[in-house]
Amino acid sequence: MISLILLIFFAFLISGTPIAFSLVISATIFLYFGTTRPLEAIVQQMFTAADSFPLMAIPFFLLAGELMNVTGITNQLVAFANILIGWIRGGLAQVNILVSMLFAGITGSAIADTAAIGSILIPSMKEEGFDADFSAAITAASSVIGPIIPPSIIMVVYGSTLNISIGAMFAAGILPGILVGLGLMVAAFIVSGKRKYPTHKFDWRPKTIANGLKEAFFALLMPLIILGGILSGVFTATEAGAVAVLYALIVGLFIFRSLKFKDIYTALLRTAITTSTIMLLVSVSNPFGWVLSIQQIPQLVASSLLSISEQPLVILILMNILLLIAGMFIETTANVLILAPILMPIAISVGIDPLHFAMIMIVNLIIGLITPPLGLCLFVAAPIAEITIERLSISILPYLFVEILVLLLITIFPKISLFIPSLLGF
Question: What Rg, from alpha-carbon coordinates, does the chain have?
């Protein structure tokens, strides 16, 4: 029966049915034909999944990101990053990566980062002599830092689903996110040298640096407020989201004065649409996961993996391969909701720290955003650069390799993820 349910699920996916409907239809068919349980259990499971206080952080962080985008904050971050590292070989490519790292502390969304940063930097890079495919590839590759460096929407979903401290996950994402950024900078440096891309002359005058810092001050202050408040225990992740929205409104309306009331309406509308999509996935994944648990699928997967090896590193490598393949075909949030409840107990059973495994899974699945054929960030960057998906899919490969290498480091060395949380007492 479970083989039939999985076959139905993948048949719906292949036919183009949205994954949320594929999940709930498959679960409903199983309950109707395979058990004596009432269909009302589907609704009950959906409500239970959505009835979660931490999930309220999602619309707050999304709205804060939308509002800060409208204020023109991206331009200020670009100018500041250009002062700091525009003089390094590759110039705007290095700026692109650093802006993604800074922007990650505001939006927590890779797709939003690709759209916001790409719309500004890809045309500028092309004008300065950078190839279109390189410009799009470095933009898409660096945007995946967004959900790794906190705040992160996917971390909120994971933490609320698996009962892991969201604050601890935010802390655990800092070093992995920085590692991804540094790895991409090295790759961009090498490629820029081979292709002889331009750099900027650095203005060492203190006045120039001070002006750049002054312009970017309010942009840089936002992630400090969010992270500082959560990690110090002043407020929860959900409360931090509300604070971020308030901060974005104050900055946009009274400091930059670039935020109009029509912009607020648009931001609210976009936030509502994105939040409803995420919450629908959260809701319908719960009955599907419940169905899998009824059929003891987690136990079957566990016994299959443990029959190969009981060594933690071998188990993690096998899981990484599975997750990399899953990320190529299924959206990140859906993957977390479906696979995390199955794989995390296996990881814990062989002695792997839950927080360490959480970071491995998140970084792994985020890489799926730049992996064909799904690669949502590729579909955002390609039209901005005016190139085909096929061309971009080839150009992204060196940076994809770098991110997989960082994933391997995170897998082998747990301290990369656990060092900062341990310092903060998580």
Answer: 22
Please say if the pLDDT value at position 125 is more than 70: yes
Closest CA to 23 of 47, 52, 46, 48: 46
CA 309/CA 3 separation, integer angstroms: 25
Give Cα separations from 385 to 86, 136, 174, 333 (angstroms): 21, 6, 30, 27
178: Cα separation from own chain's centroid: 14
Q: pTM value?
A: 0.83
CA–CA separation, 223 vs 216, rounded Å? 12
The letter for the amino acid at 48 is: T
Residue pointed to by tokens 């890779």: 110
* Per-residue model confidence as pLDDT tens digits over 363-410: 999 998 898 877 888 888 898 898 988 899 999 999 999 999 999 999
Q: How far is CA 7 from CA 30, 36, 72, in A?
A: 12, 21, 47
The pLDDT of residue 337 is 86
301-343 confidence digits (pLDDT tens): 778 888 888 899 999 999 999 899 888 877 788 888 888 988 9
Residue 81: CB partners within 8 Å, gap ≥ 6?
94, 95, 98, 99, 102
> Measured between alpha carbons, how far is residue 235 from residues 156, 164, 226, 229, 345 in Å?
15, 17, 9, 6, 29
Judged against a pLDDT cut of 70, whether residue 204 lies above it is answered with no
With both helix axes pointing from N to C terminus, report the angle between 397-412 and 312-329 in degrees, rounded to the nearest 10: 150
In 3D, which of 322, 345, 348 has the Cα closest to residue 335? 322
Angle in degrees, CA 395, 398, 404, rounded to 5: 130
In this prediction, residue 134 carries a pLDDT of 94
Would you kindly state where each structural domain of the chain is located, as residue ranges?
1-37, 38-423
The dihedral through the CA atoms of 82, 182, 170, 381 has a sign that is positive
